[in-house]
Write a structure and sequence with these properties.
This protein is of the alpha+beta class. It has helices at about 15-25, 55-65, 110-115, 125-135, 160-175, 185-195, 220-230, 245; strands spanning about 1-10, 35-40, 45-50, 80-90, 90-95, 105-110, 140-150, 155-160, 175-180, 200-210, 210-215, 235-240.
Length: about 250
């Protein structure tokens, strides 16, 4: 039997039930027993995997969701990681990367690095950058470790090239995007169909199991969809990404 701590945070009973349903559906046809235990003290989902085909499950979940490193000993300079934004500090964003033993250790993305990577001027505050790029709490981000001191539990990271490229792609498309946190892809699609918003939305893409990105058609403003979706998808967080607003704050393109 193998205990896995997945890079997926569970915030409520509905998310836990949805996760159980999805995982059971994925592995129903192979020789394996998967038991979803719930979240640990740090909020990360834990499951037990047992059976002849358990390595198939482990490999799939490692690739598609990710496994928490658990301890800082599993983190190295140059590592590419996926984490979730936890909170703003004075001059940095704190990223939860799944280090929780013997205590939680966050990675730091510093303000000066965000300014440089995202082509913003030296007057751009952390609050402004968070607003422009939708860097809200719990948003999954891809990062690269550039410095680490395990003795001091210190981890310094930057956005990965892949993450910067994603923001660049969003910006250059000139299309508004609406980030929906707290629901699955299926729940979002059902809401779009129910509200007949297909004519306003080009696509829905998943950043993780409970974070979906809606790409609006040209001429559709993401902020205009917030009241409609907010009434239907209760207990979700809706974040607007507006490339036109972003362009007006860039120092170079």
């Amino acid at each position: 039997m193998t205990l896995l701590t997945l890079l997926l945070k569970i915030c409520n009973k509905n998310q836990l039930n949805q996760t159980k349903k999805i995982i059971n559906s994925l592995f129903k046809d192979i020789e394996v027993k998967v038991e979803v235990l719930g979240s640990n003290s740090a909020g990360w989902l834990q499951i037990y995997v047992q059976g002849e085909d358990q390595q198939i499950v482990v490999s799939y979940l490692t690739k598609e969701i990710g496994i928490c490193p658990a301890t800082i000993s599993g983190i190295h300079k140059g590592s590419n990681l996926i984490g979730q934004i936890s909170q703003k500090a004075d001059k940095s964003l704190l990223i939860d990367i799944g280090v929780f033993e013997p205590k939680i250790v966050f990675a730091n993305i510093y303000l000066e690095d965000l300014r440089e990577q995202l082509f913003l001027d030296n007057e751009s505050s952390l609050d402004k950058i968070v607003d422009l790029f939708g860097l809200a709490k719990s948003l999954p981000v891809q990062i690269n470790v550039i410095d680490i001191c395990k003795r001091r539990n210190f981890i310094k990271v930057k956005l990965s090239d892949k993450q910067v490229s994603l923001f660049e792609y969003w910006k250059k498309s000139l299309l508004d995007r609406l980030i929906v946190q707290g629901v699955t892809y299926t729940e979002v699609q059902n809401a779009i169909n129910f509200l007949r918003l297909n004519r306003d939305i080009i696509s829905v893409d998943s950043l993780d199991l409970f974070t979906q990105v809606l790409t609006c058609k040209l001429g559709t403003q993401a902020k205009g969809l917030v009241p409609k979706l907010g009434r239907t998808l209760k207990k979700t967080k809706l974040i607007v990404f507006n490339p036109k607003k972003l362009y007006s704050n860039l120092i170079k393109i």
